[in-house]
Write a structure and sequence with these properties.
The protein is an alpha/beta fold. It has one domain: Isochorismatase-like (Rossmann fold), CATH 3.40.50. The protein contains 4 helices and 6 strands; from the N terminus they run E-H-E-E-H-E-H-E-H-E. The chain has helices at residues 30-42, 111-117, 130-143, 160-173; strands spanning 4-9, 46-52, 90-94, 122-128, 147-156, 176-177. A 6-stranded parallel β-sheet has the order 3-2-1-4-5-6, with helices on both faces. Helix 3 (130-143) packs parallel to helix 4 (160-173). The radius of gyration is 15 Å and the shape is globular. It starts with a strand and ends with a strand. The structure holds pyrazine-2-carboxylic acid and zinc ion (ZN). Pyrazine-2-carboxylic acid is lined by residues 10, 52, 60, 68, 128-129, 132-133.
Length: 178
């Protein structure tokens, strides 16, 4: 039973430069994420990848009054992963309901149950965007009782000031920033 899990948050084409909702320099953490995936896999950790997986009419999209341009629409190239995942990686699709936003990988998914069933006690988090889905996932991980670590050299935010605030907030909540 793996005691550790790596959670790779939303490393998808639409969040990379040239995508529908780009995280500036989001692509620069791809090699780092791939390194962590390989390293954690080698030591027997559970590899989890969350993905933003919206229906075409999602409530977070501008045409429905939301803050974002359409992005990560289910089964489109923009929703594809840009990192190398092992075949047995656990894929968690989130924000799949038209009328519900979900930034956290735990929200409306069975991620907590999967981690518990696998004996996971510690989770390590990397990915994008630091102040949205990474933060929400990390805070929920703490709430669910997991020892939570942020791989800070493998995350990227949309806005540097918001990213800084998010790191402080995570720290206050008990996330260990590595
Ligand atoms: C995200 C904005 C909208 C994220 C997802 O993955 O951080 N941000 N949808
Ligand atoms: Zn989204």
């Amino acid at each position: 039973m793996p005691k550790e899990a790596l959670i790779v948050v939303d490393m998808q084409r639409d969040f990379m430069p040239g995508g529908a909702l780009p995280v500036p320099e989001g692509d620069t953490i791809i090699p780092k994420c791939n390194e962590y995936i390989k390293k954690f896999k080698e030591k027997g950790a559970l590899i989890v990848a969350t993905r933003d997986w919206h229906p075409p009419n999602h409530i977070s999209f501008k045409e429905r009054g939301g803050p974002w341009p359409p992005h990560c629409v289910q089964n489109t190239p923009g929703a594809e992963f840009v990192v190398d995942l092992p075949e047995d990686a656990i894929i968690i699709s989130k924000a799949t309901e038209p009328d519900k936003e979900a930034y956290s990988g735990f929200e409306g998914t069975n991620l907590a149950e999967i981690l518990r069933e696998n004996g996971v006690e510690k989770v390590y988090i990397c990915g994008v965007a630091t102040e949205y889905c990474v933060k929400a996932t990390a805070l929920d991980a703490v709430r669910h009782g997991f020892e939570t670590y942020l791989l800070s050299d493998a995350v990227k935010g949309i806005n540097p000031e918001d990213e800084k605030k998010a790191l402080e907030e995570m720290k206050r909540a008990g996330v260990k920033i590595l």
